[in-house]
Amino acid sequence: MVEQSDRAPLLDWEEIPAGAPVPAPPPERGYVSRGANCRALGSTAPGTGWSTSPGGPGAFPSPSPSAAASGEADSAPVASAETVRVGPCWDAHSPVKGECRLSGWETGGPEKKPATSVPEWEEKDQIVAVFVVTFDTRSGNIVEWCLPQDIDLDGVEFKSMASGSHRISSDFNYFRKGSYFGLACFANMPVESAQERGARMKSVGILSPSYTLLYKYMHFLENQVRHQLESPGHYTQLEAFYEDKKGVLPIENGAATSLQPIHWLPSINRCMHPEMKITHPAGCMSHFIKFFGEQIIVLWKFALLRKRILMFSPPPVGVVCYRVYGCCCLANVSLPGIGVSVPEFRPFFYINVADIEVLETEVSYVACTTEKIFEEKKGLYDVYVDNQNVRTHHENLQPLLRINGADRDKYRKLSEQRQMLLYSQEVDQDCSSSEEDLFILFFMEQNNRIFQILSEVSASQDKTLTEEHVRAMGLDPQGDRSFLMDLLEVYGIDVMLVIDNPCCP
Hints:
Helices cover 28% and strands 15% of the residues. It is an alpha/beta fold.
């Protein structure tokens, strides 16, 4: 039985206050102990940063068909992993491990310098823009202020203030603007003003090349949007914030709009890997699991097939952005070489009608919207998720909507591992793993197992994929036949499927 409520208590949280205990530095040799579930709401601990590149970590060895068939695969240490290997993306984007850095604009006092220096290769905050959006009763959504003043913010006024937001008092949302990611906090305040029709609505947001560091400024943006509502036109704190955090914004002639140098990563696409964490209060992944229930397995199949997934929900949209992130976590594979030739599963987060032209060129993405008109534009998506209802208009994908015995078994194992984790945290005070780690590792193990077996069969002499192989993958030979055939085609795996598809039960 899944939860029917579309709203989760994910909005009322704060960052770690000044003076809070600073976590101890992690062990050496690239490992970091996980204690995410011990933190209070609003903790800003950095993410795991699973890498899908050949140099990325493997959480555990993938089982061979014989091992998986004998049940050894089920004993993989998915739920009880006490350490997580840190991948290169994590090191490149996360703040200094074990450091709680508070600047003057965050605390109201002088900046507290970090105890350790930041390596030159480890990127600091790359805030390329800060802006204020307001709702004007005559002009609609407009950008009333921004820095830098010459940056292209076309469309941001609608991305940062979701359609339907006038019905709620506060919200936040992640979005994409070109090659950048944004985070905006929205607030709606009643006012005694006929000109404003009794309500003043604003959003304060930022843009960055990566969404992995945006979480650090959630509390600041929430405070600033309230400040803008109560004292419109006062941008001093936002100006100080931008001067402190601004990055170099590349333009066509190779010059830059800022003189402050930063060290750009070799590829911006590495910032977009879906396995990298965004901010969330404790319970985000728990809500994702409870909300979708067994439908998570259906979403898993569509994510692994790199389909275009669009989620619809009325405001608030912040919790739905977390569902987009949760859906992205379903498709992680850590085996070298797997997925090199398939489209990248790109998180778009919140979208609106202004994104239609961009979506027409996308072959794989996951996004969310509050605009019902998208339901009619079936050429823009493969899978439409209306709250908890997952559906597709493609006839060849219809079989993937049916839950089979293997799907129920997977969800049962996920639920059991989750309950064991919660029990160990409550009774044994064991905070070495989090629900998010468990969730990511669980599906990564499923994906690694499938592709490991397919790779071994593809490298064999006869290339024959049997029912035993399929069962060893954790799939149903009959119920998952259509999914497996699509998987072989999408990933270009050369094997011969010899499983019969009977016309009747």
